[in-house]
């Protein structure tokens, strides 16, 4: 039977790649609901092509969307609005699969709603898991949801782990013969920049990733290595291991997407051309495999695969994220919120590139770290961190 899909963040880079995969498999999947935030014209095009039953936009965009849809004779599409609308579509009984591809903290409540509705959740929105780690993973267990990693590294690790790994005890220790996770990082566009050069980089340069084409926020995160920091936290929660079992390896070619080491000396790697359609298709069809347009890897054109240690002096964001994971509690949510504000300020030309980690660190130092035992407490910390980071941007 065909699976009915809800795409949260359909107008984004992951949303578009998801549509590409679904389009290739019309018998297996149908688009039931989609959500957008600012790109209404693109959303209307998506509605014309995929005919979803429900769409969600912010309240102030509803009139504009209604007019566009009426012009296209698409009045039968139901429009829901705002955060309540996002939470509703993520948990509709008609929906089987939810692609969580909203960027940032805005995705937390809808992703959690999908988990609590016991859906098959394809997780791209790493910030949601970084903020709510234990709470989200507990909800996956309690509500019998299936949480599948879309982030290419985590999808790679998932593919390299032994079968049944997720049924094993969650105690921070690797198990079933696993000894370590190697999380690969491309190093971003400024891998070989000096500190002086880093001070001068522009938003346009930061958004031009050498290997992946992505949304603006994750592109800047890749350039600061905060993306790898968020992914370190993401890996600890997904795979129930403490941070000292995760080694970050810079691998500029982005051919190996991550690795798992075993106690017998084996290292398993997942490889492929860098295209998000592969992990999306894997998460969508798991445990089956489905066709994508991604060409198979031609190893004769990739004769050199390089590996190096990350430099946390030039890229302190990675160190900050590791420390936040060690500290636990609200620290990852504070780190994430401060980073979102600092990245937005950098994209707005209000601060320089090297100020991003400084603002994150100063925000972490200013806020008290408590237990992250409810969504309300997490959202409160997110809010306080945003206001402190905003003040730091202005000062
Ligand atoms: P984009 O910026 O391209 O897309 C973000 C999506 O979220 C858009 O649909 C956008 O709507 C929507 N959105 C933005 N703000 C809000 C908000 N406040 N409320 C509701 N919806 C909102 O991002 P990406 O697709 O690159 O990334 C999405 C997520 O996936 C991120 O968490 C990222 O870290 C993760 N990811 C992305 C990868 C990639 O290759 N792009 C790889 C691995 C993970 P609109 O466009 O209409 O404004
Ligand atoms: Mg990634």
From TrEMBL:
Where is each 1-deoxy-D-xylulose 5-phosphate reductoisomerase N-terminal domain found? 5-133
Q: Which residues bind NADPH?
A: 11-14, 125, 127, 215
Lineage, top-rank taxon, reads: Bacteria
Q: What is the lineage of its organism?
A: Bacteria, Pseudomonadati, Pseudomonadota, Gammaproteobacteria, Moraxellales
Instruction: Please state the Enzyme Commission number of this protein.
Output: 1.1.1.267
- What role is this protein assigned? Catalyzes the NADPH-dependent rearrangement and reduction of 1-deoxy-D-xylulose-5-phosphate (DXP) to 2-C-methyl-D-erythritol 4-phosphate (MEP).
Cofactor names: Mg(2+); Mn(2+)
Tell me where in this chain the 1-deoxy-D-xylulose 5-phosphate reductoisomerase C-terminal domain is found: 147-239
Name under which the protein is recorded: 1-deoxy-D-xylulose 5-phosphate reductoisomerase
* Molecular function GO labels: 1-deoxy-D-xylulose-5-phosphate reductoisomerase activity; manganese ion binding; NADPH binding
Q: Where is the DXP reductoisomerase C-terminal domain?
A: 271-387
Question: Key word Manganese present in the record?
Answer: yes
This protein's record includes keyword Ribosomal protein: no
Sites binding 1-deoxy-D-xylulose 5-phosphate sit at 126, 152-153, 186, 209, 222, 227-228, 231
Q: In which pathway does it act?
A: Isoprenoid biosynthesis; isopentenyl diphosphate biosynthesis via DXP pathway; isopentenyl diphosphate from 1-deoxy-D-xylulose 5-phosphate: step 1/6
HAMAP family xrefs? DXP_reductoisom
Q: Give the family per the record.
A: Belongs to the DXR family.
Keywords from the UniProt entry:
Isoprene biosynthesis, Magnesium, Manganese, Metal-binding, NADP, Oxidoreductase
NCBIfam families named among the record's database cross-references: Dxr, PRK05447.1-1, PRK12464.1
Question: Which Pfam families does the entry mention?
Answer: DXP_redisom_C, DXP_reductoisom, DXPR_C
Gene3D superfamilies, per database record? 1.10.1740.10, NAD(P)-binding Rossmann-like Domain
């Amino acid at each position: 039977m065909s699976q009915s899909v809800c795409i949260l963040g359909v107008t984004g880079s992951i949303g578009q790649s998801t549509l590409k995969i679904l389009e290739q498999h019309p018998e297996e999947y149908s688009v039931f609901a989609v959500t957008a935030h600012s790109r209404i014209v693109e959303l209307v095009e998506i509605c014309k092509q995929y005919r979803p039953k429900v769409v969600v936009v912010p309240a102030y965009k509803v009139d504009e969307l209604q007019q566009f849809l009426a012009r296209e004779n698409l009045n039968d599409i139901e429009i829901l609005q705002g955060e309540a609308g996002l939470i509703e579509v993520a948990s509709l009984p008609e929906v089987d699969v939810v692609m969580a591809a909203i960027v940032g903290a805005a995705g937390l409540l809808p992703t959690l709603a999908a988990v609590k509705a016991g859906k098959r959740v394809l997780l791209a929105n790493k910030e949601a898991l970084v903020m709510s780690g234990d709470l989200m993973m507990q909800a996956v267990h309690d509500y019998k949801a299936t949480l599948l990693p879309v982030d290419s590294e985590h999808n790679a690790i998932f593919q390299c782990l032994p079968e049944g790994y997720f049924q094993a005890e969650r105690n921070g220790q690797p198990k079933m013969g696993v000894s370590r996770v190697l999380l690969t990082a491309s190093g971003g566009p400024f891998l070989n920049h000096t500190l002086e050069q880093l001070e001068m980089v522009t938003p346009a340069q930061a958004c031009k990733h050498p290997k992946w084409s992505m949304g603006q926020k994750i592109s800047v995160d890749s350039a600061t290595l905060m993306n790898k920091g968020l992914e370190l936290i993401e890996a600890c929660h997904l795979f129930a291991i403490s941070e000292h079992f995760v080694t970050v390896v810079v691998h500029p070619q982005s051919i190996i997407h991550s690795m798992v080491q075993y106690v017998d000396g084996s290292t398993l790697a997942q490889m492929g051309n860098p295209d998000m359609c592969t992990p999306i298709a894997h998460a969508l069809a798991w445990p089956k495999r489905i066709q994508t347009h991604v060409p198979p890897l031609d190893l004769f054109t990739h004769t050199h695969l390089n590996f190096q240690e990350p430099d946390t002096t030039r890229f302190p964001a990675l160190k900050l994220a590791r420390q936040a994971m060690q500290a636990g509690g609200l620290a990852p949510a504070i780190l994430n919120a401060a980073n979102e504000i600092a990245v937005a300020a950098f994209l707005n030309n209000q601060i320089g590139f090297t100020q991003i980690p400084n603002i994150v660190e100063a925000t972490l130092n200013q806020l008290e770290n408590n237990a992250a035992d409810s969504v309300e407490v997490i959202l409160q910390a997110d809010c306080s961190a945003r206001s402190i980071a905003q003040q730091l941007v202005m000062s």
